[in-house]
């Protein structure tokens, strides 16, 4: 399954549209007014599916991932040189990225790839392609992508 993650050009808060391979809207992400990033994920019919919420009182950036009111995990940036590294407490996954922070792989505990996230260049807004091997993992992969993008925006 492939998702196209595209930030909206004009919005007061972080807003994204997530499309499938056929160009249909699968998810809509809306930023909320809060301390730190708070991103609500809705399906195409407007039902809330999840939330990515930044913990503001932590040494390094940390985000909690929610499905409904249930916390399903968190992601935090690790102190590293040259290559971004993230500590993930969600499904036993881990993320590794390249030096330029444009491409990531989400791997499970055995080293099998769950998803590959690639940033598309030459766009006016942040645009990513998320290749997910199992469609059941799409929402969690999207939440991780949102958290990584929010961390990069905060840093810049």
Brief write-up:
This protein is mainly beta and 156 residues long. It has one helix spanning 138-155; strands spanning 2-7, 15-19, 25-31, 38-43, 48-55, 62-67, 70-77, 85-89, 94-97, 103-107, 113-119, 127-132.
| Broad shape | globular
Biggest sheet overview: 12 strands, antiparallel, barrel
Helices, by number, come to: 1
Radius of gyration: 14 Å
> Into which percentage range does the β-strand content fall?
over 45%
CATH superfamily: LURP1-related
Number of domains: 1
Structural class label = mainly beta
Pfam families: LOR
Family: Belongs to the LOR family.
Protein name: LURP-one-related family protein
InterPro entries: LOR, LOR_sf, Tubby-like_C
């Amino acid at each position: 399954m492939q998702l196209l993650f595209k930030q909206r050009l004009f919005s007061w808060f972080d807003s994204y549209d997530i499309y499938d391979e056929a160009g249909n809207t699968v998810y809509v992400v809306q930023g909320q007014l809060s301390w730190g990033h708070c991103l609500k994920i809705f399906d195409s019919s407007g039902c809330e599916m999840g939330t990515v919420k930044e913990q503001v009182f932590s040494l390094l950036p940390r985000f909690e991932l929610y499905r409904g009111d249930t916390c399903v995990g968190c992601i935090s940036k690790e102190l590293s040189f040259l290559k971004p590294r993230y500590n993930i407490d969600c499904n036993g996954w881990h993320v590794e990225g390249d030096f330029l922070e444009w491409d990531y792989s989400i791997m499970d505990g055995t080293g099998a790839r769950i998803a590959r996230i690639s940033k598309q260049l030459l766009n006016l807004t942040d645009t990513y392609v998320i290749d997910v091997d199992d469609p059941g993992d799409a929402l969690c992969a999207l939440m991780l992508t949102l958290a990584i993008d929010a961390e990069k925006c905060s840093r810049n």
